Protein backbone atom coordinates (compact mmCIF):
# COMPACT_ATOMS: atom_id res chain seq x y z
CA UNK A 1 0.00 0.00 0.00
CA UNK A 2 1.32 3.43 -0.96
CA UNK A 3 1.91 5.65 2.07
CA UNK A 4 2.00 9.39 1.53
CA UNK A 5 4.57 11.68 3.08
CA UNK A 6 3.68 12.85 6.58
CA UNK A 7 2.58 16.40 7.36
CA UNK A 8 4.36 18.48 9.98
CA UNK A 9 1.27 18.52 12.20
CA UNK A 10 1.18 14.71 12.30
CA UNK A 11 4.85 14.44 13.23
CA UNK A 12 4.40 16.96 16.05
CA UNK A 13 1.21 15.32 17.27
CA UNK A 14 2.94 11.94 17.47
CA UNK A 15 5.98 13.50 19.14
CA UNK A 16 4.00 15.38 21.77
CA UNK A 17 1.94 12.29 22.51
CA UNK A 18 5.11 10.24 23.02
CA UNK A 19 6.55 12.82 25.41
CA UNK A 20 3.32 12.86 27.42
CA UNK A 21 3.51 9.07 27.74
CA UNK A 22 6.75 9.52 29.69
CA UNK A 23 4.71 10.40 32.75
CA UNK A 24 3.59 6.75 32.91
CA UNK A 25 6.70 4.91 31.71
CA UNK A 26 9.90 4.13 33.56
CA UNK A 27 12.67 3.67 31.01
CA UNK A 28 15.80 5.85 31.46
CA UNK A 29 14.79 7.89 28.39
CA UNK A 30 11.32 8.51 29.82
CA UNK A 31 12.81 9.57 33.14
CA UNK A 32 14.72 12.33 31.35
CA UNK A 33 11.65 13.41 29.37
CA UNK A 34 9.59 13.66 32.58
CA UNK A 35 11.95 16.35 33.83
CA UNK A 36 10.99 18.44 30.83
CA UNK A 37 7.29 17.98 31.56
CA UNK A 38 7.82 19.51 35.01
CA UNK A 39 8.88 22.85 33.50
CA UNK A 40 6.54 24.80 31.23
CA UNK A 41 9.41 26.96 29.99
CA UNK A 42 11.59 23.97 29.12
CA UNK A 43 8.70 22.24 27.38
CA UNK A 44 7.91 25.33 25.30
CA UNK A 45 11.54 25.67 24.24
CA UNK A 46 11.59 21.98 23.31
CA UNK A 47 8.43 22.41 21.23
CA UNK A 48 10.09 25.17 19.20
CA UNK A 49 13.34 23.26 18.70
CA UNK A 50 11.63 19.98 17.93
CA UNK A 51 9.27 21.73 15.55
CA UNK A 52 12.21 23.06 13.54
CA UNK A 53 13.74 19.58 13.54
CA UNK A 54 10.51 18.04 12.28
CA UNK A 55 10.36 20.59 9.46
CA UNK A 56 13.56 19.05 8.11
CA UNK A 57 11.50 15.87 7.74
CA UNK A 58 8.04 17.14 6.77
CA UNK A 59 9.39 19.54 4.13
CA UNK A 60 10.42 16.51 2.04
CA UNK A 61 7.73 15.64 -0.47
CA UNK A 62 8.23 11.88 -0.56
CA UNK A 63 8.17 9.30 2.22
CA UNK A 64 11.53 7.84 1.21
CA UNK A 65 13.13 11.27 1.54
CA UNK A 66 11.41 11.79 4.89
CA UNK A 67 12.83 8.52 6.18
CA UNK A 68 16.34 9.59 5.22
CA UNK A 69 15.78 12.99 6.84
CA UNK A 70 14.55 11.36 10.04
CA UNK A 71 17.63 9.14 10.14
CA UNK A 72 19.80 12.23 9.72
CA UNK A 73 17.88 13.93 12.51
CA UNK A 74 18.40 11.12 15.01
CA UNK A 75 22.10 10.87 14.14
CA UNK A 76 22.41 14.58 14.85
CA UNK A 77 20.68 14.13 18.20
CA UNK A 78 23.15 11.40 19.14
CA UNK A 79 25.94 13.95 18.57
CA UNK A 80 24.18 16.76 20.44
CA UNK A 81 23.60 14.60 23.53
CA UNK A 82 27.18 13.39 23.62
CA UNK A 83 28.76 15.79 26.14
CA UNK A 84 26.34 15.20 28.98
CA UNK A 85 26.00 11.51 28.10
CA UNK A 86 29.77 11.15 28.45
CA UNK A 87 29.71 12.92 31.82
CA UNK A 88 26.76 10.84 33.02
CA UNK A 89 27.85 7.38 31.86
CA UNK A 90 31.48 7.91 32.85
CA UNK A 91 30.46 9.48 36.18
CA UNK A 92 32.86 12.32 35.45
CA UNK A 93 33.04 14.68 38.44
CA UNK A 94 35.28 17.25 40.04
CA UNK A 95 38.23 18.79 38.17
CA UNK A 96 37.88 16.35 35.28
CA UNK A 97 34.29 17.49 34.66
CA UNK A 98 35.49 21.07 34.63
CA UNK A 99 38.13 20.22 32.03
CA UNK A 100 35.57 18.48 29.83
CA UNK A 101 33.20 21.45 29.89
CA UNK A 102 36.06 23.88 29.32
CA UNK A 103 36.94 21.87 26.21
CA UNK A 104 33.57 22.77 24.68
CA UNK A 105 32.68 26.04 26.43
CA UNK A 106 36.10 27.67 26.81
CA UNK A 107 36.26 30.24 29.60
CA UNK A 108 32.50 30.33 30.08
CA UNK A 109 31.31 30.24 33.70
CA UNK A 110 31.33 26.61 34.88
CA UNK A 111 27.91 26.69 36.54
CA UNK A 112 26.28 28.22 33.46
CA UNK A 113 28.01 25.65 31.26
CA UNK A 114 26.61 22.80 33.38
CA UNK A 115 23.10 24.26 33.28
CA UNK A 116 23.29 24.88 29.55
CA UNK A 117 24.55 21.38 28.78
CA UNK A 118 22.00 19.73 31.06
CA UNK A 119 19.13 21.65 29.48
CA UNK A 120 20.40 20.75 26.03
CA UNK A 121 20.63 17.09 27.09
CA UNK A 122 17.06 17.00 28.40
CA UNK A 123 15.60 18.58 25.26
CA UNK A 124 17.71 16.53 22.84
CA UNK A 125 16.97 13.33 24.73
CA UNK A 126 13.26 14.08 24.50
CA UNK A 127 13.56 14.65 20.75
CA UNK A 128 15.64 11.48 20.47
CA UNK A 129 12.84 9.58 22.20
CA UNK A 130 10.34 11.05 19.73
CA UNK A 131 12.39 10.35 16.62
CA UNK A 132 12.84 6.76 17.76
CA UNK A 133 9.08 6.51 18.16
CA UNK A 134 8.41 8.03 14.74
CA UNK A 135 10.95 5.79 13.04
CA UNK A 136 9.80 2.57 14.66
CA UNK A 137 6.04 3.01 15.00
CA UNK A 138 5.03 5.52 12.34
CA UNK A 139 7.45 4.90 9.48
CA UNK A 140 8.32 1.30 10.44
CA UNK A 141 11.95 1.88 9.52
CA UNK A 142 14.32 -1.00 10.29
CA UNK A 143 17.24 1.43 10.63
CA UNK A 144 15.86 2.47 14.02
CA UNK A 145 16.55 -0.95 15.44
CA UNK A 146 20.09 -2.35 15.71
CA UNK A 147 21.85 -0.14 13.12
CA UNK A 148 21.20 3.10 14.99
CA UNK A 149 21.83 1.44 18.34
CA UNK A 150 25.25 0.35 17.10
CA UNK A 151 25.97 3.81 15.73
CA UNK A 152 25.19 5.32 19.13
CA UNK A 153 27.53 2.88 20.86
CA UNK A 154 30.30 3.56 18.36
CA UNK A 155 29.89 7.32 18.58
CA UNK A 156 30.20 7.05 22.38
CA UNK A 157 33.47 5.14 21.88
CA UNK A 158 34.83 7.82 19.57
CA UNK A 159 33.64 10.71 21.75
CA UNK A 160 35.21 9.19 24.84
CA UNK A 161 38.51 8.72 23.01
CA UNK A 162 38.38 12.33 21.80
CA UNK A 163 37.69 13.74 25.26
CA UNK A 164 40.22 11.58 27.08
CA UNK A 165 43.02 12.59 24.73
CA UNK A 166 42.12 16.28 24.88
CA UNK A 167 41.82 16.63 28.67
CA UNK A 168 44.64 14.29 29.77
CA UNK A 169 46.51 16.02 32.57
CA UNK A 170 48.12 13.50 34.94
CA UNK A 171 50.92 11.21 33.80
CA UNK A 172 48.59 8.22 34.04
CA UNK A 173 45.98 9.97 31.88
CA UNK A 174 48.62 10.94 29.31
CA UNK A 175 49.86 7.37 29.03
CA UNK A 176 46.31 6.06 28.55
CA UNK A 177 45.59 8.76 25.97
CA UNK A 178 48.41 7.57 23.70
CA UNK A 179 46.51 4.37 22.87
CA UNK A 180 43.22 6.22 22.49
CA UNK A 181 44.80 8.81 20.21
CA UNK A 182 46.05 6.04 17.93
CA UNK A 183 42.56 4.54 17.81
CA UNK A 184 40.73 7.76 16.94
CA UNK A 185 41.21 7.60 13.14
CA UNK A 186 39.92 4.03 13.09
CA UNK A 187 36.94 4.88 15.28
CA UNK A 188 36.13 7.92 13.13
CA UNK A 189 36.35 5.87 9.94
CA UNK A 190 34.08 3.21 11.43
CA UNK A 191 31.52 5.90 12.24
CA UNK A 192 31.62 7.34 8.73
CA UNK A 193 31.03 3.93 7.17
CA UNK A 194 28.25 3.16 9.65
CA UNK A 195 26.52 6.46 8.86
CA UNK A 196 26.74 5.79 5.14
CA UNK A 197 25.32 2.28 5.59
CA UNK A 198 22.43 3.55 7.73
CA UNK A 199 21.45 6.28 5.29
CA UNK A 200 21.63 3.89 2.34
CA UNK A 201 19.73 0.92 3.75
CA UNK A 202 16.13 0.29 2.58
CA UNK A 203 13.20 0.96 4.88
CA UNK A 204 12.37 -2.74 5.12
CA UNK A 205 15.35 -5.03 4.49
CA UNK A 206 14.56 -8.30 2.75
CA UNK A 207 15.35 -11.66 4.29
CA UNK A 208 18.82 -11.73 2.80
CA UNK A 209 19.89 -8.72 4.84
CA UNK A 210 22.05 -9.51 7.84
CA UNK A 211 24.65 -7.97 10.07
CA UNK A 212 27.89 -7.59 8.11
CA UNK A 213 31.31 -6.22 8.96
CA UNK A 214 31.95 -2.51 8.65
CA UNK A 215 35.64 -3.25 8.78
CA UNK A 216 37.23 -6.62 8.10
CA UNK A 217 39.87 -7.79 10.53
CA UNK A 218 43.49 -7.63 9.46
CA UNK A 219 46.83 -8.28 11.03
CA UNK A 220 46.81 -5.05 13.02
CA UNK A 221 43.21 -4.74 14.22
CA UNK A 222 40.65 -6.96 15.86
CA UNK A 223 37.42 -7.73 14.08
CA UNK A 224 34.82 -5.14 14.99
CA UNK A 225 31.10 -5.40 15.45
CA UNK A 226 28.88 -5.10 12.40
CA UNK A 227 26.02 -3.12 11.00
CA UNK A 228 23.28 -4.01 8.57
CA UNK A 229 24.34 -4.30 4.97
CA UNK A 230 23.83 -6.46 1.93
CA UNK A 231 25.92 -9.46 1.00
Structure, explained:
The chain is mainly α and 231 residues long. The chain has one domain. The chain is 70% helix and 3% strand. The chain has a two-stranded antiparallel ribbon. α3 packs across α4, α4 packs antiparallel against α9 and α8 packs antiparallel against α9. The longest helix is centred in the last third of the chain and has 30 residues. It is globular, with a radius of gyration of 19 Å. 28% of the residues are buried.
Quick description:
The protein is mainly α. Helices cover 70% and strands 3% of the residues.
Supply database-style keywords.
231 residues; mainly alpha; two-stranded antiparallel ribbon; globular; disordered C terminus
Structural class: mainly alpha
**Biggest beta sheet attributes:** 2 strands, antiparallel
Shape: globular
Radius of gyration: 19 Å
- Biggest sheet strand line-up: 1-2
What is the count of DSSP helices, taking H or I runs of 4+ residues?
9
- Measured by DSSP, the beta-strand proportion falls in under 5%
- Name the helix and strand elements from N-terminus to C-terminus, one letter apiece: HHHHHHHHHEE
